[in-house]
Structures
1.
Amino acid sequence: MAESGGGGGCCPPMDLMRSETMQLVQLIVPMESAHLTVSYLGDLGLVQFKDLNSEKSPFQRTYAAQIKRCGEMARKIRFFKDQMSKAGVPAKEMLVKENDIDLDDVEVKLGELEAELVEINANNDKLQRSYNELMEYKLVLQKAGEFFSSAHRSATDQQSEIESQQAGEDLLESPLLQEEKSIDSTKQVKLGFLTGLVPREKSMVFERILFRATRGNIFIRQTVIEEPVIDPNTGEKAEKNVFVVFYSGERAKSKILKICEAFGANRYPFSEDLGRQAQMITEVSGRLSELKTTIDAGLGQRNILLQTIGDKFELWNLKVRKEKAIYHTLNMLSLDVTKKCLVAEGWSPVFASKEIQDALQRAAVDSNSQVGSIFQVLRTKESPPTYFRTNKFTSAIQEIVDAYGVAKYQEANPGVFTIVTFPFLFAVMFGDWGHGICILLATMYLILREKKLSSQKLGDIMEMAFGGRYVILMMSLFSIYTGLIYNEFFSIPYPLFAPSAYDCRDTSCSEATTIGLIKVRDTYPFGLDPVWHGSRSELPFLNSLKMKMSILLGVSQMNLGIIMSYFNARFFKSSVNIWFQFIPQMIFLNSLFGYLSVLIIIKWCTGSQADLYHVMIYMFLSPMDELGENQLFPHQKTVQLLLLFLALVSVPCMLLPKPFILKKQHEARHQGQLYAPLDETDESLHVETSGGSHGHEEFEFSEIFVHQLIHTIEFVLGAVSNTASYLRLWALSLAHSELSSVFYEKVLLLAFGYNNVLIWIVGIIVFIFATVGVLLVMETLSAFLHALRLHWVEFQNKFYEGDGYKFAPFTFVFTANEDE
């Protein structure tokens, strides 16, 4: 492991291969300096505290009252944030450090500001409600007034018409009419009416219910209001109708009132007198203008108050969050029997010991404590957390590995190799240096503007792309490299490094795609000769090349995974895993697929026409048969028999010895002694058995044997399936190349075949959208996911257990940005 060297550096060099060496530390802190100590350790961010009060409920802990107090302040701050966001008042950046303010002062100030803001809001709500009611009242006066005035005009016209008719009638009928007029006035029916507004979507149901409830003894008129109005009760805009209901009798009135209340219809008083109506409209308009002035003044006062809050919002927010985090951490500490000290336990990296001690000493001095804090390292068999120190370049790759599973403490980290192998395998599937340049340009934009973009709130997809910008950079660079090997620039070949080694048989070149070409120059120096593209042999040649290359890459990466299992076993001093896991696995894999890789290389070097499918199949089915024309080297049959024998022998070597050896070691370790010395404990075997912390754990031989059986079967079957899985490199590379070729030939070249500028423009636009949408987005995502699968399943399962847990130190780094 990298260790802290001399000098003033706070941290040693990074070492990604193994996680940092961790230690369990105990801190004994005086009560008077406890708060400041935890605060300084939070600034340091290198201690993961253990909860020593897990048996207590949150309300039984020492600092429950302080947490409740901080929670109440956090509620007020959330209230201020909500009010500022509604008013569009931004919070200013912090200019003063949070240490310069006192929590008690913050609490008092927050209480005063909340009371003032609540009072202003309550007054504004009352005024706004009155304003909205008056607006509705004004609309009722206008719309109902129009109805009454039109009805009055209609009645006047009808009356004058009746009078003119009566004047021309025969005089003999006039006594009868006089008798009719002498009807008793007490028998006349007095009609009442109610006016108001009802939501438009409920207006038809409202009218129907009124009609049924009164058995048709009503007359209702409705008028639509064109603009939505703000409802006084909800404060939301709604489309409404003004209604006038005429009724007869108090019983009908009570029914109408109940229905209005059920439908949320707001009722307003109205006078039949036209003069009184005009007077009421004038009064309401005057009151509306007064209320508008008062509301505007109240909103101005509210905005001034919110701006005052916004000036110190971030400062108060960070202070309250930090205090709450400190008290949460203090609640994890146990109280000493003397009730004068707090005892803390936690994990920290070994290199951080000096910094932690400095923080403890600084806290004791700053809090004027008469007694300093005590720092001591505890010995334990508990598995420590896993901590890799990463930078902005390696963090994204480490996140990819951790998504599969966090590394066990100090086991080999696949991230070291994934930094290179992940973008390389992606590029094998994506190889096109034109597409690679497009991705490179997009990534360079993210990298050159990373300071500005890191402070902005991006969308989910953009946030993901920005976080993995350096992974995408590596992917684009490797894509350019593999694109140069495949000699593809948007599917077009270019003789970049030299002229093609092949030429046509005649000057007309009419047989280039039928009979073929002849070699006239030296072999093309780098990558694929451009003349292969478009020839009749292109697809068979590229298929053969990429398929064999995929197998070679897959076998190499799987061998790397098995070799990493050796380094794990050696690091954990497990000779059992070396002799009965690493060696049989290497023999089995290379006896079959390592041998296939060697045959591929020999065939390439010698130009042999041997059928490798035939060789591998009959190596199992008929190992004693002669190879004939499929023989690639002398004594090949003998070598194949030997390799087949080694592969068969390696399977029981993986399965049988390890469980019996583990059982024997367990019995020897617990015979005559309860505990083994800590230095002699075989860590890998300790974890294998049950990982108990008392050394007298049960040893279940059947479980160990079944586990080993499953592991052996998985490896044997996986050797075949995993090798076949690497053929996805060939399949996706071929698909990408063919799609790119189709877009170029069937869109771009087809458009240029027409002598029309408009068709050219349309063709170019379609080509650009197809290239970006399909090849640069969908194909990139597809190749990324397949490369991810190859690392998680085919590579990491050879050595990576991934059953650890992350080091989660107490820190203030993200407190300012996290929501509760």
2.
Amino acid sequence: MIPSNTICVSEEGPANALALNKDATQVVIAGRNVFKVFSIEENDFTEVCNLRVGKNLNLNFSSIDVAWSTIEENTLATAATNGAVVVWNLGRSGRSKQEHVFSDHKRTVNKVSFHLTEPALLISGSQDGMMKCFDLRMKEVARTFISNTESIRDVQFSPHQAHTFAAVSENGNVQLWDVRRHERCLQQFTAHSGPVFACDWHSEMPWLATASRDKTIKVWDIHAKPNLEHTIYTIASVGHVKWRPQKKYQVASCALVLDCAVHVWDVRRPHVPLATFAEHRDVTTAIAWQNDPNTFLSTSRDCSLYRHRFSEAAHPVLWANPHGVCVSARGDVTHAAPDCPLPALHTNPASDRYVPGLGRKQPTAGSLRPQAQAALERLFPGGAASILTRYSGEGRPPCCVVACAKEYKMRGLPTHELAEHNAKVARAYNRHMVGHVWEVVRCVYGRPPPREPPEREPPPPPPAHTNSNAVEEEPLEEVEQWAETQFHNSGVLGMPTLSIYIPPHKYKIRHDATGACGPEGSGWVSAASAHYVDVETADWTLPEEAFPLRAPPPAHQPSILDTTHGRTAAGGASPGGSSSPGSGSSGSNGSACTAPPNLEQTSSAYPGAATPEEGESGPLWVVHEALRPHVEPAPLLALALRHHADLGDVQTAALVMIVLHEHRSDLFPYIDEGLQEHWLLGYIEFLQKHKLWNVATEVVRCAWLSSVWSLSQQSSSVTVCCGRCGRRARPRAMCDRCLPHPDLCAVCRQVVRGLYAWCQGCSHGGHLEHMRQWMEKHQLCPAGCGHHCQLG
């Protein structure tokens, strides 16, 4: 949106430069495809003439820069892309206004400038590193100045000394020349670390402002020896700079790239602009102030020409936060506040807009009234002074992360013991989420070794039965399954192999008939291999139904908890103990329970079920181990470590990987090596910030990545000093001054032959055992230097 007092005109193409006449009533814009003169009206631009006319439109009409004589009303000069300097006369009759063409430069001309008091002198700066002064009366080159540097980007005559001009080049140098002496420059100094693109003289002070690619604007005092007075820091390379008329400390600038706005700076407050004009949609290519300090013109690559009024400027300082807070790694807080904050300025409420991200209204262009505008310019420089206050964190409890780092263990114990210790440390400092991660590591990677299964006692002999015709059945017992064992499947429907008890006299008959081998005196055999059926009491009549009917469940089936193995047992049988093949098969396949340890108690727990003592058959128990779903812990643990790292807790992520030891490879498919290195280096940097050098070295030592553990072999040096003279000795060499004298023990004053221990603070030492005995009783150095020695 264009402010109400800003006028704009569109061009046929982008303009590279503009210039005002001496009365600031007309403006000329020049570019590769545009060359026009406009009259500046109150609310509009009026085109006066178009200089890009004629039959032969050659490169002389494609301009990089344009200048208007400050004395002659109708004299213009342009710098063409083909290296020509063209002089134009607006008072010339006819369509063509071209007066003369100077073709003395071999490369592109970057800048042309008229002398401020001599209307016939015109100077140019070219890409060939030369500057030429043209005499318009003689229409020839008066003098040639060779800079012996790279290309010249700008030349400007000084308003304070008539015969002095400044030239800036792409190597960062600034040269001051006397127009009467072309042999060598008066002064030369390095102004910037990059190419200098523009310069401008102050109208009142002997100051020269330079703009460079290094994103700075520097103000130099050229009164005697060049001295840097002010430096302004911008966000992009600065392409043009112009001092604001009648304002001693204010200068306007525009960028070469990125930034499309025109900024007005106060050199006394170099980090934030005083005013900003953001009407252009592309990079601004030229700016020029009118005689009034409140109005200036600008052109851009967006093919537009604007006239800006200072009353329509936006002021970034009004919505910038004047306070700053920063927290150090050790918990110290620093607060910066303005020494003289700006008072509440009266703005136009209709011009303010609400910004959700800032949570407050943001002033826009033209929001200040004239009185507030003047007050802002007056108080703006004083707001640069700030008061810095530091609040130390001494005396408060230490950081829980630092405290945990001091007490964590990384090696020396099995994984589950290290995880258990670290979990206790984390919970002691109220880091319960971290403690939970350590508990998971302990449970997953801390399983005890499998135990050998105990020998099973033989079952008691079956009781005598009064009814010989009843089918004798005993409850089934599960073959105990232990850790890391699986069921062995038989050939009968793939069901788990179970043990079944066959009475001795029945088993003997079968043993004699089939010749099967079994334990002597034992009736326990595999139910899947035995295929046991009592042929004497079996009912061989065909059933009336195609499929046997399932018996109704008992009225009450209590569950019994096997305390030995932690399993739930429940059994059921048909009332009356039916032993038909159909019912027996149904009961075996349908039960999924576990045998209780006490069969008598289990049998009596069912109403209506007869016990073996009563002469009836007991319930048939079929048991097997419950199948548990297998869960892979590695991806879940990797996800937990990533979550903690995303929260900024690289300590947990790095230490869990270290503590896992040989199980660390389980996480490699889910955590790439680059992320592992990032965690380790981040944790090491954190420890070094808190001066936990020993812990950081321990982490480097336990690292499994070569890029991390190799840190211990880098930048490690021990400086050796002579114990007598204190002079620094060469590595692996004796002291040059004390070479004839061998090293003596500071305790016994004898020559040390063997292990030698010394203090790194005072360089005195001796026999290892002598130094140990001395330090156990004393704190000062045995050599008498007064140093508090410490023997590691």
